[in-house]
Amino acid sequence: MTGAQFRLSLPLAILFAFCFIAPLTILVVMSFSDQAAAGGFTLGHYRAIFTDPFNLSILLDTLLLGVKATLLCLLFGYPVAWVASRASPRWQSILLFMVVLPIMTSVVVRTFSWIVILGRNGVLNRAMLALGMIDEPVRLLFSETAVVVVLAQVQMPLMVLPILTAIGKIDPNLSDASRALGAGEWRTFRRVTLPLSMPGIIAGCLLTYSACVTAFVTQSLIGGARLLYMPLRIYQQAVGANDWPFAAALSITFMIAVVLVAIGLNMLSARSSRHAQS
Amino acid sequence: MRKADRKGAWEARSLSIILTAITVVAAIVLIAPTLIVLLTSFTDSASLRFPPPGFSLRWYRALLDAEQMQAAAWHSLLIACGATVLSTVLGTAASLGLYRSRSGWAKGLDMLFMSPLLLPALAFGFAALILLYRIGLRPNLAFLIIGHTVVCVPFVMRTTLASLSQLDPALLDASSSLGAGPWTTFWRVTLPLIGKGVGSGGFLAFMASFDNVPVSLFLADERTEVLPIHLWQQIETNLDVRTAAASGVIIVVTLILMLIAERFAGLTRQIR
């Protein structure tokens, strides 16, 4: 019975073998291939990445961008999840609907709406001019701060939903007990709710982080051509410069960096869920 | 004494006041951009000023003549429908195959099917293009749909596996011991019970495909321009109000689809 049932996953497994594993394997092969000598093997592309400060700084900037956007997302996402967990079912649905809306509307539309807000004649500049906070329009677009804010707004649901699930699983008796024993709201929050929702926080950070570092459209439209992050760099090398082996090596390096962060967070989450159970 | 009381009351409320205040700020930041673009798209001027000096439908009428944009929208719709059907059918079958198994194989397959969610889609699109060229093929519509299917599968499997974990196995045993075959059990028992999870997953897959840029960038041939890439180029080259009108259409359609998904599949409950 279970054998027969297991076979149901075969069609998708075959699709993934040919259309996911095979391309990624070719990508790895390509990243070691020497363009000068057909069929040649070289470590040159990786050497070029790791010895060139320019490439390294792009990688580092991209990973740091993900950290900043994820932290900002957590700062706002946790309170949203906490409030949603205590709201009536009706308000909870409304709140979640608002959280999910930005990620559902097309990424180009979302980014476009931020351009209308942050542009030279945008909503924010004109509001600040009217309030006398500035004398002439300031440049808000094409800055890293703008990219961080927009990414945090767009990826918010990826942070809120896992945290909400984690808070929902906490036994309400624990908070009651903490309060009955004389701990105030803040202390109960810090010592009970926050540690017990840690698995949700880590899962949310993992999803938000990988979505932020790979958000090609948002990064390049809000960041402009001056702020270079890994996805745009890969695209430029693959399509603009037509240097496939180097673009492949960049892709592999970037993927490994993203996966390493994911594994690190996963280990943290395994530790914190053991901690939560004990 | 009274002072201590007041301090206690503030201590009790301050946490929820502060967290609620942050939530209100977050809610405004979440909603404002969408509302601003929606209002701007009804402007009667040729600039993207907000608030608009006056309202009209002229930019929506202009969409009727934007043939290139319409063609791109049709392509996106076609691709999204194809990818949604494929990823929903294959993803649901795979979920059914995996959810009861505790073996290492099942765990490995589960990780494999989920990995497109974490890996950069741009690198996958690029890799797929290299593979096509290596075996002597060129990008076309079918490959584009298959590429979208791969990145859409995780959305279907997440919600479907979540609803399968709620399923009482006794119901399936009861059905088969009463003489129902596997197909009858699936159509009459399993599917009705996990339908909301499958439906929500299919909805998410559709939105993800309609919105996908990184895979389309590499796998679309010259004749099949998709809507998000077309709009992107519009924004980069000439930022005109037609883009705002197209955004308005997308926002309204998304809202309607979300309300339908919420009404029939309990979307916000399924994606938790």
**Can you count the beta strands of chain B?**
0
Number of strands of chain A: 2
**What would the principal axes of the Cα set say about the shape of chain B?**
globular
Largest interface, counted with CB-CB under 8 A?
A-B, 93 and 92 residues
Distance between the termini of chain B: 46 Å
Count the helices of chain A. How many? Answer: 15
Mean pLDDT of chain B: 89
The computed structural class of chain A is mainly alpha
Bulk shape of chain A? globular
Rg on CA atoms of chain A, Å = 23 Å
Provide mean pLDDT of chain A, rounded: 88
Strand content of chain A: under 5%
Query: How big a fraction of the residues of chain B is strand?
Result: under 5%
Poorly predicted segments of chain B: none
How does this structure look, described?
The complex is a heterodimer of chains A (278) and B (272). With 278 residues, chain A is mainly α. Chain A has 15 helices and two strands. The mean pLDDT of chain A is 88. In chain A, helix 9 runs antiparallel to helix 12 (198-213). Chain A is globular and about 75 Å long. Helices cover 79% and strands 1% of the residues of chain A. The two termini of chain A are 37 Å apart. The longest helix of chain A has 34 residues, at 53-86. In chain A, strand 1 and strand 2 (40-41) form a beta hairpin. Chain B has 272 residues and is mostly helical. The longest helix of chain B is centred in the N-terminal third of the chain and has 39 residues, at 2-40. The model of chain B has no long low-confidence stretch (mean pLDDT 89). In chain B, helix 8 (182-211) packs antiparallel against helix 11. Chains A and B meet through helix 1, helix 2, helix 4, helix 5 and helix 6 of A and helix 1, helix 3, helix 4, helix 5 and helix 6 of B.
List keywords for this structure.
heterodimer; A: mainly alpha; B: 272 residues; mainly alpha; globular
